[in-house]
Amino acid sequence: MKLVTLADSVYALHADIDTDDLFEGIWPIPNGVSLNSYLIKGDRTVMIDLFRDWEDAESQIEGQLREAGVSLSSIDIVVLNHLEPDHTGFLAELKKRNPKLEIIATAKGIELVKSFYKITDNLRAVKSGDSLPLGNGLELLFEEAPNVHWPETMVSFERKSGVLFSCDAFGSFGKLGARVFDDEFSAEEHGFFEKEGLRYYANIVSSFSTFVQRAVEKVKPLSIKVVAPSHGIIWRTNPATIVNRYLTYAGYLNGPAEQEICVIYGTMYGNTAKGLEAVIEGIESEGVPYSLHRIPNEDVSWVLADAWKSRGIVIGMPTYEYKMFPPMAYVLDIFERKHVNNRLAFRFGSFGWVGGAKKEFDATVEKLHWELLEAVEWPGLPNADTLSLMRERGAELARRVKETGRPKAE
Ligand code: FEO
Q1: For 350, phi and psi rounded to 5 degrees?
Q2: Is the CB of 172 under 6 A from ligand 1?
Q3: Low-confidence residues of the chain: pLDDT under 70
Q4: Cα–Cα distance measured from residue 292 to residue 386, given in angstroms and rounded to the nearest whole number
Q5: Phi-psi category of 325—alpha, beta or left, where left has phi over 0 and alpha has psi -120 to 50?
């Protein structure tokens, strides 16, 4: 990767991570992820957000620092907007090589510097409204943005260039390659990053959607020219696009989500899948877009992304040992943790001796405030009447999703 100039004396660095490893130890990243850091060469040299010792991140970032004429030992200050180790894992090593390094974070962030990295000197806590003058008109302004994505998080804004260093906010999965700016990607590539951005939002940020809305309100008065997150594209031509996209996603926390249906099913021997075909026929008869996910074959990461944006949810699963099909119990547990609230849902499934998924399912989704259409369950294979009922339910769900869902945002 090459060093990228954002503005006079302000630079972007990034490491593209290509790995079979999971992000946060949970989420697959088959398209990689970028770890973006930033550099300001004022009267002191400041690095904003770091990276973790992951694949060859260190050599990628060090190469770009060299291009800027900066070495790890010549950095004066590191600003840590967020302490999650994807942005700070290298801190202990950096401090070892550069003992005079000053570390700036919020007070809560400083506590994590001490507990995660056992560093106790040259620490400076900042709060909303504090600033760091860097000479030649350069000045970093700090604004706390708690829970985007951890409690200690803040964003930093460089006044002269108008660059907002937003850390996790406005980020996405997907490695960048040689290009970093929004105006350097084709419409097709933007489509890719939009999908990976939604998956990143649903997987990482969704629980904190209310805090995303608050953070956007806080930074609104700033004259933002560039949105520079710590993962993914840097937005210099249309920064409002990514801010509005995040606000749209945040709005899905309590719904209504989009006029779309997320169909999730698991099947042991194909009997539940027989009913699925009929539900889909019903949905298609109303022309409502849907996504289809078989679990556990597909990772919950993608299921969650589509569920997050969908007003309608279909859950198809057999009864398993008198309870829910275990992979579906896991999916619903993730939905509860991520607050996939206020959806309109339909459940169906096959059972062998007795149904049993209902009790557990109803108790789970009650917490999510889902409105449920009447479920359909059958023993063994579905008969013609059951399939006809399933078609009707699919069509009914689709009609109600059209009535109550939000038109897809452009
Ligand atoms: Fe990219 Fe919450 O760390």
Answers
A1: -100, 150
A2: no
A3: 409-410
A4: 21
A5: beta
Residues 283 and 232 in one domain: no
- Count the residues in the chain: 410
Radius of gyration of the chain (CA): 24
pLDDT of residue 200: 98
Given this model, what pLDDT does residue 301 score? 98
Q: Which of 225, 251, 277 is the last residue of a domain?
A: 251
User: Rounded to whole angstroms, how far apart are CA atoms 135 and 161?
Assistant: 13
Q: So what's the pLDDT on residue 62?
A: 96
Check whether residue 219 and residue 79 sit in a common domain: yes
Q: Which two three-digit tokens encode residue 193?
A: 């990053």
Q: Give a yes or no: residue 375 inside a domain.
A: yes
Residue-range definition of the domain harbouring residue 278: 261-401
CA 54 / ligand 1 centre spacing (Å)? 14
Q: Which ligand 1 atom minimizes the distance to the CA of 171?
A: 1
Indicate if 225 and 269 belong to the same structural domain.
Answer: no
- The count of domains in the chain is 2
> How many angstroms is it from 87 CA to the middle of ligand 1?
7
CA of 84 to the centre of ligand 1 (A): 5
Residues 6 or more apart whose CB falls under 8 angstroms from that of 202 comprise: 249, 304, 305, 307, 308, 309, 338
CB atoms within 10 A of CB 66: 12
Tell me, yes or no, whether 78 lies in a domain: yes
Tell me, using a 6 A CB cutoff, whether residue 236 lines ligand 1.
no
- Contact 52 CB / ligand 1 (< 6 Å): no
Output the average pLDDT for the chain: 96
Specify the 3-state DSSP secondary structure of 185. coil
With respect to residue 104, please indicate whether it lies within any of the assigned structural domains.
yes
Question: With a 6 A CB cut-off, is 260 part of the ligand 1 pocket?
Answer: no
Distance CA 323, CA 357 (A): 4
| Of 251, 274, 309, the domain-final residue | 251
197 plus 135 within the same structural domain:
yes
List the structure tokens of 145. Answer: 């943005």
Q: Are residues 51 and 200 in the same domain?
A: yes
User: What does DSSP assign to residue 408?
Assistant: P
Residue 410 lies in a domain: no
Q: Which helix (H) or strand (E) holds 77?
A: strand 77-79
Residue recorded with tokens 């604004």: 143
Give the pLDDT confidence score for residue 357 in this predicted structure: 85
Distance (Å) from CA 323 to ligand 1 centroid: 36
> What is the 172 CA–ligand 1 centroid distance (Å)?
10
pTM: 0.96
* Closest atom, ligand 1, to C-alpha of 167: 1
Output the pLDDT for position 358.
87
